[in-house]
Amino acid sequence: MRCLCLILLALGPGISALTLQGKRVDRVNVAANATLSKDCWKRRPVIHHRSAFLEKHPGHGFDEKDVAPFELVYMDGYMYVDCVKDGLKRGADKHGPGKPEYEEEHSTNVSIVWYDRIVPKEDREAMTPAVCFNFCRTVGKTTQFFGLVEGRKCYCSPYFIQEAGDSSQCDAVCEGDNKQMCGGMKKQGIYAMHFCDRLAEHVEDAKTAADLSHSLCENVSNAYLFKQETLQALGKGLRARAGQAGDTITNVHGASASKEGSEAYKVHSRALAVQLDLGNASEKLVSDALTDSGDAKDDEGHKEWDLQDADVVKGLEKNIAVAKNLVKEAAKTCGPFEEGAFALDTTENADPDVDDVPHIQQYLPITYWIEDDKATDHVNMTGALASTCAGINLKDESVTNGFPVRDAEQCAEVCDTFSTDGGGNRCLAFEYYKPADEDHGLCIMLNDIKEISYYKKDICGDEGESGGEERSQGLRRRMLLQKKDAKKRSASDKVLLCAAKFSLMTGFGLRLKSKAAGVDHVPVNALDRCF
Questions:
Q1: How far apart are CA 14 and CA 31, in angstroms?
Q2: Is 441 helix (H, G, I), strand (E, B) or coil?
Q3: Cα(441)–Cα(260) distance, integer angstroms
Q4: CA 380 to CA 377: how far, in whole Å?
Q5: How far is residue 428 CA from its own chain's centroid?
Q6: Are residues 226 and 375 in the same domain?
Q7: What confidence tens digit (pLDDT) does each residue in 185-237 have?
Q8: What integer pLDDT is reported at residue 317 of this predicted model?
Q9: Does residue 475 sit in helix, strand or coil?
Q10: What is the Rg, in whole angstroms, of the alpha carbon atoms belonging to the chain?
Q11: Do 224 and 336 share a domain, yes or no?
């Protein structure tokens, strides 16, 4: 599989560049508390000493008119801290239900900020931790925590104060997601926010994963389209030819091939749909990075990507989520067919072991075991008469109804990969069909042989006539090949052939000859015509 990589270069504090398909997008001027980067993905301690914070950042949430949410982003992640009774909710609520107590004590010069007091009712979302985070991370630079309570309420704060509480738990189900908890009725679920400056990295990771999954589905889609087109053409031709010859065995094989072609098209269609969606998602990750930030450019003329812009961040995070979901869909839709797509490689270089002994040399034409077949060279594949076998197909779904191959050698090679399997997946023979005008042939692997037919007049000429000048030329050509190399077994020019692995056919001759009780007899049909 191709590895489609993006390059992320660190340029210095607060500045970095993302190279996407040869285009550079700079990320600059992102405001954040510097101490947060080292604490990313770590639990932050409860703040007991808030005097230093108040001296540096007085007035958090004091004036609700100063809160402008969903414009600038100051945080890019959050994590659960604890379930506590937050003293800030009780004593630092200047505008909400705790206002009377705040005015009485006035022990802080900060205030918590409530989601439902800032966001208009028509714009509010059912509460979850993510909803609260997306609000609080845009409230201001000093907002570092958020709290959830009663399953539906959210507030933002610069810190929290853990006070003594009862034994109750944060077990209030979130209004927007019944699989999550949003605080309790008496305690608050507290979350810490952090800025890791990793959005560009997440875009990179999402695009790399989307591109790799796109390649996977593209390979599956193309391979199974090839399988569909090839098998349906071969199946149609085989059924037509078998009908003319009155051969029910090959007619069944042709129907199986056509059926497998239809199933292959379903795989192709599903893989293609995911492939196209992944391509669009990958492109959108790039195009949004280049366009959402407008026409602003840096000193070097590169477009800026302002990760403090809430709309840019929200759009990119949405695109990342879409890409991730499609990667999962690709694994489910295309993943199970990855090996099948690889097996459909019928190029001449598909088998790297070109110096090995040909697999076909381990196989003999099925007529080798038929004593009455006096007219043919039993051993030589080229001289063997056209034959066909009915039997039990392998159970493996990828090969059970046949698959396309470049020649009989590849058919034997695949059969060999199943020859050591047990049960219904052990291949001991195969049926091979390849018309002279086709680039690929049909291979059907058999776990057992139940019936045999062979044609005494071999293959018909182009006009369907037995004998004739063309048949004579074909026989002479085969005789010359045999004379040139009598020991060579080749099936490359055969139109129809049933072959079996010699080492796995012990006792098969007895099954052909004997009709005694207890013997699984295999009937043989000697057809006095051509195929």
A1: 8
A2: strand
A3: 14
A4: 6
A5: 33
A6: no
A7: 999 999 999 887 777 788 888 889 999 999 999 999 999 999 999 999 998 98
A8: 84
A9: helix
A10: 36
A11: yes
- Residues in the chain, pLDDT under 50: 1-57, 291-298, 300-303, 348-352, 354, 462-490
Gap between the Cα atoms of 118 and 93, Å rounded: 14
Q: Is residue 170 assigned to a domain?
A: yes
Structure tokens at 286: 């790039």
Which residue is listed with tokens 């993943």? 335
Evaluate whether residue 348 is within a structural domain.
no
The answer on 245 and 138 residing in a single domain is: no
Strands (E), 71-185: 77-86, 113-114, 145-149, 153-157, 162-163, 173-174, 177-181
Say what angle helices 248-291 and 310-333 make with each other, to 10 degrees: 170
pLDDT at residue 327, rounded to an integer: 93
Which two structure tokens, joined as six digits, stand for 417? 């990969």
Whether 22 is in a domain gets the answer: no
Residue carrying structure tokens 């590849």 = 410
Residue 162 forms beta bridges with which residues? Answer: 86
Supply the pTM of this predicted model. Answer: 0.64
Say what the pLDDT of residue 460 is.
82
Tens-digit pLDDT profile for residues 380-430 = 677 788 899 998 888 877 777 888 988 888 889 888 888 876 667 888 999
User: What span, in angstroms and rounded, lies between the C-alpha atoms of 505 and 369?
Assistant: 9
Three-class SS of 477-489? HHHHHHHHCCCCC
367 shares a domain with 257: no
Looking at residue 309, its pLDDT comes to 75
Count how many domains the chain has. Answer: 3
State whether 38 and 153 are in the same domain: yes
Angle between the N-to-C axes of helices 310-333 and 199-245, in degrees from 0 to 180, rounded to the nearest 10: 30
Burial class (CB in 10 A: 0-12, 13-18, 19+), 290: middle
Which residue range(s) make up the domain with 186?
Answer: 31-194
The answer to whether the CB of 525 falls within 8 A of the CB of 415 is no
Shared-domain flag, residues 134 and 204: no
Distances, alpha carbon 6 to alpha carbons 40, 133, 207, 252, in Å: 24, 29, 8, 51
Which one-letter amino acid corresponds to residue 226? F
CB-neighbour burial class of residue 36 (10 A; exposed 0-12, middle 13-18, buried 19+): buried
Distance CA 391, CA 424 (A): 12
What would the DSSP string read from start to end of 83-100? Answer: EEEEHHHHH--SSSTTHH
Residues 516 and 367 in one domain: yes
Among 141, 165, 194, identify where a domain stops: 194
Same domain (yes/no): 303, 396: no
Q: Is residue 152 part of a domain?
A: yes
